[in-house]
Records
---
Amino acid sequence: MLDDIYKQLLIKQEQTGKKIDLLIICGDFQAIRNITDLKCMSCPDKYKQIGGFHRYYTGERRAPILTIFVGGNHEAGNHMRELYYGGWAAPNIFYMGGSSVVRFGGLRIGGVSGIFKDFDFAKGYYEHPPFRGHSRASMHHVRSFEIFKMLQVRTPLDIVVSHDWPQKIERFGDTAKLLAKKPFFKAEVDRNELGSQANALLLERLRPKWWFSAHLHVRFTAKVSSSETIYNKGWNAIPPYNNISKNDAAGLDGVQANIASASANTVSGAGAGTNSDEITIDSFSSDEGADSQQAPVVASSSPNRNETSRTRIPLNLPPPKHTANIATTNDELTQYSENEEEQHDLPPKIKEEVNEGAPSKDDFVISKEPTFSNPHVPGRSTEFLALDKCLPRRQFMEVIDVDVDGDYDPNVKHLQLEYDPEWLAILRLCQQYTPTDDMPFIPPRNAVFTGEKPSVPLFPDHLISQELEWVNENVFADGPVFIPPNFVQMAPAPPRETPDSAHFGLATRDFGSGARGSRGRGGRSGSRGQGRQNRGNWQDAQPWQGQLPYFLYPSPQTDDFCRMLGLQNLLTRRQQYDNLTSSSS
């Protein structure tokens, strides 16, 4: 499937005469390396196939176009967990992690992996090898912690990528046409339940220029103007936060302890395809094979685009100079008054001791109320695009030109992915709150629920400014930082001669007569059965050769990334100690 996508892109590039800069795939990428990855993919065994990704993983083939993707609900969850912060799944193919923001040619691109399920949304990352039972599915369910991190973004995003749609987005497009194509959506549309509540919350808060999604197997476009509201309920409207008691809610957003408050060029972006809970095993070029990469959207650019020459990310935040971490609840007094005459009535001896060596009022930036910058661009609308499955005669690919505002070096022709300073600052700020069990994630007390709609938990600007200052000094001191091409193959892959349709005996199929439906449901010979879903050959069922791969492998990329930011790898490092059982389990 991946081969077919790149083939079509290269044909499109030749036909239009436009260079395609970036391919974005919106989930269900299925970066399957081996039989253990197949076992960890959440779908019925009968649909499992090795596919063609392992050839890119081993270097047998190389992606001809830089590719980024988010996770869907049919992925090798163990492989994606190894790259939790994002990283190269293969050379020139970048996974955006659980959530992230990266830069590309002046564009800021945000991504959120997984689909929304209310019963898993609040949980932490409790899954452990060997990832049995529900944990294989829950690894693909978006967590509130990822949404919380994305909500902290304060500067505008150009593109956001997700697998499932933001809830209510169908109201901003041709709903009647959508229901004519997918009439079984009507009940969810009528109940305002089609799509993800969490993504709707992000869309309302972030308002990017473009939002690309997938998952529902239909092309759909919508436009949300800057004056329209898609979601106004806020964080507590999302289960289980809508069940928080009054006292708990007061503990979350009532107490504010320990807080102080270019020239236009063109870059192409791309949105991508979809796969819902339904699984179809048709492929792009034939009637066989499991569906994998879903409707990519591609990027094309003008020939004069180049890299930006920034060395700092400008944020309209309070200056980090000596920002005081001493503001308290609204019930308490500010420790240093702006009016020198406002002193507590202390005895002279005590007042002298208190004032001796005390910093002057000019040494502190004191805010009685915390401030929260808004990432909205006034007057800018959000264009939404979802595409269909990667099948013949379906709208699964689209090339889009995305305008970019910024200063660029005209001598730079090769665009690369870059780290985003603000996102790295957010990661440093949020790291200590990473949930590593199945208990509900509760926003920390120094994250304040905003009074505006939607009311969401936000860190005050000054806390992000402090981390951003560290990031600029320690990571971006010499200017933009490109994401290094530090991919290393860690897990084994099958031999080169292995067919893409191989399932190593995981799938239940009949190869006796080769006739369509030679064995039907319940094993009854001669019935129509499941048709092409059961077709295959004996080579596909050959067992895995050699030692069975482990569930998790160390990721040098993740280790390097955590060292760069001074983070502890709380998820994959911890789980590697639990990786004592091989996939033979």
---
Amino acid sequence: MSQTFRDPQSGGSLIVAWQAKARSILIVGGGAVAAGRVFNALEADANVTVVAPKLCPELEYRAQAQQITWRNRTFEDSDLDGSDMVLTAISDARESRRIADTCKQRRIPVNAADINDLCDFWFMSTHRDHSVQIAVSTNSKAPRLANRIRRQIASSLPRGTGQAVEQIGRLRKRIREADPRPENSKRRMTWLTQLCDYWPIEQLAKLDSDNIDSLLDAYVQDHDPQSVRIHSASESSGMPSPVLRSRTLTPDTPNTGEPNRGRLILVGAGVGDPELLTVRAHRALKEADIVLADKLIPEAVLDIIDCEIYTARKFPGAASEAQDDLYRRGLEELAKGKCVVRLKQGDPFVYGRGGEEVLFFRSHGYESEMVPGLSSAINGPGLCGIPVTHRGVADQVLVISGANRNGDLPVVPQFMATRTLVILMAVKRLEQIVGLLAEHGFPADLPVAIVERAGCSDQRTVRGSLHTIVDVVARAGHNPPGLIVAGYSVNVLSDAAIQDRYLDPSTLGLHSSE
């Protein structure tokens, strides 16, 4: 045989989309992992039964809302009767193994959390946007990395991808109703293929009933789908990016008048999106001879820099040594007469140690030029639809740090219903922070949000209440850097926030208290 074909690559999984509607799925366990399994099963319209002597707050809510059937006891073999799938999420590995063995004897597919050799299948890291579902599997080798890959894929999708799929589904149904003949299936497929392949996804997402009627008429009349023009009032509403002229900043210090004298600019990188840099910050980065950057500066901001980038090497327990290293390198370059930009995340003077750096370089004869940046404390929540103040809801905002110099918990005032609390650098201590807030009178049903990587393309917002947020984050994981927002303003714009381009739709099911 002269013709050859590609060889299969072994070691993969057979990836399918299982139709679980009205199927019976049994979940053994009542903790945060079980809650995640329950949510996935409910999104697939399955009939879910949970067997556990105790439920986490989210599962208690679902049981009370009659979204699941709860058997308030430990597992019994009779629970398998009628089950189409079994998921175990318990800490007893021996019992998980026994349940899995029993399932295999009865030819019931089973997944045992964290015990790979018992699993007939694995759960993948998924992104959901309307009917669009994207799943990433590392075949159980690097689940945490799968989450990162999934977020990267999701952030690269055009805005409105899920809505575009919904609209194409509506149009496809209308075309089949108007032309149901089997012999025309190829014509229908070819016409829709042209539409899907050549129209921008953003344009497809804007289709309304009138547009769909126009496209249906074009199909019936055998017109090319590209001949149909869709006009939207929002098409010309976008503001162009500013033209950044290359001209020198006007220095306000005597340093520039001295020969071979370096120049120091302290620049705030803002919230992560290079389009949200100030024009002056952008110009400073273009004129720099070297940029001394914080470790967490997003790649998108670093990509616009043309000169050498020296990154702070901050490791746990060695922050002071890293800061000294930046000071040393800064003084070396300034002594050579270089233009040195010290690039700090957010605004340098909002928990950024900017004042300390100004004083240090001043003591060595260099005055800093100041270029402020957007602070994530205010603008991070705003990017995901959380106004830190809102008339009639929140008339003040308090910003504190969860990472005090000596590792102590922050000092928190007594709860005030009209105050929004923003806590920076605290998500890793979330459980302690929640306990601290509860001690100071913060109510259990108070809305809480975790905003991750504010302003970046993979920004994510996870919502819950003071009572549920720890379990929600335990299930969803955390992608630093992040901040905590607590207050009634969190949900003021929650419906609008879902439409924001920075939100990850796969987390919307984690709004456990809304």
---
Amino acid sequence: MWKLKVADGDNNDPYIFSTNNFIGRQVWEFDPDYGTREEQAEVEAARENFWKNRHLIKCNSDLLWRMQFLREKNFKQTIPQVKVGDGEEITYEIAKTAMRRGAHFFSALQASDGHWPAEIAGPLYFLPPLVMCLYITGHLDTVSQGITYTVISNEDGGWGFHIEGHSTMISTTLNYICMRILGEGPDGGRDNACARGRKWIRDRGGVTSIPSWGKTWLSIFGLFDWLGSNQMPPEFWLFPSFLPIHPANMLCNCRMVSMPMSYLYGRRFVGPITPLVLELREELFLQPYNEIIWKKVRHLCAKEDLYYPHPLIQDLMWDTLYICTEPLLTRWPFNKLRQKVLEVTMKHIHYEDENSRYITIGCVEKSLCMLACWVENPNGDYFKKHLARIPDYIWVGEDGIKMQGFGSQEWDTAFALQALLACNLTNEIGPTLKKGHEYVKDNPSGDFKSMFRHISKGSWTFADQDHGWQVFDCTAEGLKCCLLFSLMLPEIVGAKMEPGRLYDSVNILLSLYKNGDLAAWEPATAPKWLEMFNPTEFFANTIVEHEYVECTASAIQALVLFKKLYPGHRKNEIHNCITNAVRFIEDKQMPDGSWYGSWGICFTYGTWFALGGLAAAGKTNKNCLAIRRGVEFLLKSQRDDGGWGESYASCPNEKCFMSANTLEADTGNNCMYPKVLSLYETVISICIYPKVSSLYETVTYAMYYVTQTGPYNDLNGIYIIDPNGASISVNCMLQQLCPYRHAYLSLYQ
């Protein structure tokens, strides 16, 4: 049986190291002797139940670790269940009881190091490249146990880009290959998964129309010729800095994917041609492999995968590289430069690996960087250090074993603590708050500017400290938590953070400040026209950093509180930042009064952050038209049952799609998450509502779904991400984090 281990790492292992003794690390370990027969049967029942309902409810409920934690802590809910009948008045005592019940249950889910564990997965193209990499390198046994539980395809036989999505060529092909690697025959897999998946691929002309990332992985695996892929010359990393097309101008995620891809392309690396590879060549193509004219398939992309068609200028660029540039760079004397630039590229990869403790920025880069290190030296320490960090990406739920985008420990904990603080139950949950405070105070302290990186001193990551990549809304939320704890008695919640470290956090937020808007990872200084060179067909907004309403709103809230508590530090700069940030949010409001959310679903999520930022800056319904329009949007979009059920389709279509009622939304079996967000929005906007029943209906709905032991009916939602699990790409979704729903419900009941 699988078991979640927290803050686990071997300090005596020379291939794994940590900056903070592995605080925040969450890894799964398989122990065949762990658990009683009854507990093992309970896990199997959860898995079987998910399988039977997989086409109806595609999100899992993270049951395995929740059952483990509650069992280990011997948690027993002692607060009586609240039941509210139709039309029954919700009194103060009823609401407080429900809130206490939720807060106590949520506290029981806290890990020993102070954070709240959670899955952050959902895209179905994450895991197969890792399996392919381990197959090539001969280390498949690292993660093979239990992987077959991930074989969950759509009803048409294909795999979606993410768990809610329609079937796509890239996900179907990669998952089919993954199943075959793991031992399934051509007609194997539960529910005839292999045969149905292969039919889906062949019915659409075979894998020659797989998108660019798929072509790259198939070339690496020996199922495609590099001549059929667009060129990725590693000489790019030697471009002079004055050029707009320069690595420093790229979104960090795009930069980190391009590095190992260009190295592997520059080496024209192809894995061993095994009997399995030869079989797959026959199974996945409609014509004999040796008869394919590769140069004719470079621009092909299946219609199911095409979200961002390449503009003509980009295709001309690829053709120029293919016809002119690449043949020149691979011939003497220019091939001498190729060898030199490959060394430079690996220097960048090693730098990024070391600074992330070999976790890397995200899961897509993880597999590629690990493979690049193996290609450079199969027996080298760099590759062995990568192997040691694979468990950081693996997550196990009732739907099987998955690869996460990366961790979300810091983000979850910041919101969890704010929710629990708002409950005003310090005397009851003091130990939980203290552990969480100690965890969130443990922010990174690095300060590096070279290798195309921005400073990170004073920032918080999205995951744990070892991850090492600064994220600025996480920094704002972490700063806000520490400021709130500084107002409380230290004997209850622990010593407050030193002012100097708070100053560091403010300084890095201000370093992102441009015209009032804030980005997510690094300053958004590159021209937006560079997006026309986005090489992916299934993502948008992936080349350069962008500004976001959510990041800006989080920064406003943190800076307003900091300015109140520490008025002497960079007072004028903070004032100007807040003023311009408010203007940015107001300018970004949509005609219907909503805000587009780049990091969640979608208009509900964006409106929540926007109203929170405006309210923190002193805006109310009386002095701010944007707030009045935002509230009107919420009231108009409220469902008949009192909730807000928004579909993930809002994200790729950039248009709000609401379901007829909350239960029918696409974000899971129940949309408690957008419901409580909208409740929060209406409260913080400090408005007098023409429809007071909006709040009453929402609170009633939320309280109704508190079950007998406290968890919230196994609710889930979807979180929008980029190809690496980080920033906005418009067209990819992550399964919503379990602590989100518990945190928000604890806060607003």
---
Amino acid sequence: MEKSRMNLPKGPDTLCFDKDEFMKDDFDVDHFVSDCRKRVQLEELRDDLELYYKLLKTAMVELINKDYADFVNLSTNLVGMDKALHQLSVPLGQLREEVLSLRSSISEGIQAVDERVSKQEDIREKKMCVLRLIQVIRSVEKIEKILNSQGSKETSAQEERSPLLTGQILERIATEFNQLQFHAVQSKGMPLLDKVRPRIAGITAMLQQSLEGLLLEGLQTSDVDIVRHCLRTYATIDKTRDAEALVGQVLVKPYVDQVITEQTVESHPNGLQIMYNKLLEFVPHHCRLLREVTGGATSSEKGNTVPGYDFLVNSVWPEIVRGLEENLPSLFNPGDPDAFHEKYSVSMDFVRTFERQCGSQASVRRLRAHPAYHSFNNKWNLPVYFQIRFREIAGALEAALTEVLEDAPAGSPYCLAASHHTWGSLQRCWSAQLFLPALAHRLWRLTLQVLARYSVFVGELSLRPISNESAKDIKKPLAAGSKDPSATHGNSEDQGSGPPEAKPVASVSSTQLVYVAADLDRLQEQLPELLEMIKPKLEMIGIKNFSSISAALEDSRRSLAACVPALSSRIVQDLSESCFGYLRSALEVPRLYRRTNKEVPTTASSYVDSALKPLHQLQSGHQDKLKPAIIRQWLEGALSESTHKYYETVSDVLHSVKKMEESLKRLKQARKTNPANPSGSGGGGGMSDDDKIRLQLALDVEHLGEQCKFSWPVHRRGSCPVGC
């Protein structure tokens, strides 16, 4: 193929394609055309192909002319070729038969070799099984021989027998037994092994019984060498868990059953703490030897320790949990939340102290991963405890957030009992008598719910109708439910017609609204104090970043602050309406002077002196509860709104007086009479009634402005339209 490519004629350099593209095995016309179209137009590609086609045609003609003689003699040279091929077919057939025969012989030889190899492999496997069975029999006989020799010596020289020597012999037996177990597992399923299995079981029972007796003897006599040999033997035969279970059953269980009793807990006010202290004393007093041998104690030498044991985790702790669950089931009862909180706190302190007795961090991790550890923690029904506490806190809070607004107890920083109970609920969530680290997330959610509930309560208060009665007068009809005059009147009309369709909306006094605003401001100021109260509790469960906690509290503070504008608007509206209730008397001034011959006014009306009494009462009665800035804001808003209404009222009166005066003048002119007294003057030739009205209103407005300047000299300019 390469030679053919080299024989292609070379075209001009201006061709838009490569001539070698035609000789590729994967040549594709569509791909060739699309590739060339990226470089040139189709017309130019056609011209280049025609040019190269002419070159190929010329080259082919030259090639034929060059080898013309060979082309002509091609058929002549093939004469007799079929005869030569027939002569070759016979020896080729013979050669094929010989090759097939040889192949068959080789295949038979290979098959025979494979059969012999498989037989040898089978023989080898059977030989290994026989050797393993022989090793099993030898190990069994060797162990039985050692045990029998020890049994005969024990009867003759029991007094001179050394426990340490027995421990060394058991360690030898354990080593041999370990090999026996290995070969027995490898020979599983052999008939001979089934016959030997009872002997193996007897050896296992005897070895385990001897190890148990020797281990208990070593623990009773505090012999470190015997205990070390026993534990090493247990580790050799892979029975470390049996040794830990033996210690738990024989050494730990009796002590636990003696200490963990209902009488121990009930005999003393701190009976539970006393019981836990006795349990903690078990480790240094009864497990010291085991911890030294296994490396669980800080004073143990690493060279002489036996690894692979953790008696505190696998022996002591499971028995303690079993004793608590069986002998003291009332410990986990959440019915009494105060007692449950105390028991849980004392128990968790005991768990932390027990963890500190573990020799290493790895031992602590094994303890926390132990099933008995999870069982102990799951026994504490924390969700039920939280539900009880939730009902206590939420029930007390809802009882306080009622339609009847009670005063806060004496000494409280709040004015209303509802606010006092809200702050008390927040404090109680994180108090030492209620808080549990495992419930921190639920208590945090409850904290946010309490703040949200108080925010909703304040929003509902701001929508209630305002009553002119005092707070004490309002509580009585709301508490009785049927003492309100309007409600009584309605019942008298509809008596006997069935239950009322809608509950009457409770009203709130302006004093109570002021108290709510003061409490709302106080609660916002105490939220940082609440955060400082929460931080140590959350640090107990490992939380170090309090940015999200602070952000959530800030959201709650903004929710509380969002209630302030509506509340302030209601208070300002009530103050302005109270003030304007007096200033509305300006409408009566024309009636006092028209056609009454009253003397010319020299002093302001009496209603002006009473107009600012609600503002003075607010400033003097609540300055110890509210910030001066808040009071000043309310006073400015109420004064501005009431004086604007007063300004409009005076303007309407003056406009009415002017219209009356013009009407009387037109009437006089129409009758063409002498307009001696067109306005009904009080005396001949004196000041007219309309002028007296104007003078009286001027005196009233001037006196009101003087009162405003005298009472609030720093009042904003321009907010009072009557010249304050």
